[in-house]
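Morning!

This is the sequence you dropped in the shared folder:
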Amino acid sequence: MTNGEGVRTPKRARLYVTRIDPWSVTKAAFMLALAVGIVLVIAVGVLWWVLDVTGVFITLSRTIDEVVGSATTGFDLLSYLEFSRVIGVAIIIASVEIVLVSVLASLFAVMYNLSVGLTGGVEVVLSDEV
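The structure's back. Tokens below.
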């Protein structure tokens, strides 16, 4: 489209998002939460490996034994910081995160659909500017 001087003016379209499919939102949120959960578990594994290789766990355990005294307590830090235990906790946290994000996303989609009658929806302006 051109104006009187031959300059091209961009076309604009105003659209309103008046309904969101909760099932589509749930699927998209699940996939994104799954990706975040996988990244979380891998990051915890890499962080544990770096701390183990650098000797942080052993140094921390010795410091706790010196401060508290190993004879008075039966607390063994290294047994609590085993790789399988740490990764297990990370997997549980990632699983809870995946479920919560999926459920909350679908709940928010339903709430949006219920409130769109009052608000009119979200306005989206599309244009073909170059």
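Headline: The first helix runs from residue 22 to 53.

More detail when I'm at my desk.
O.
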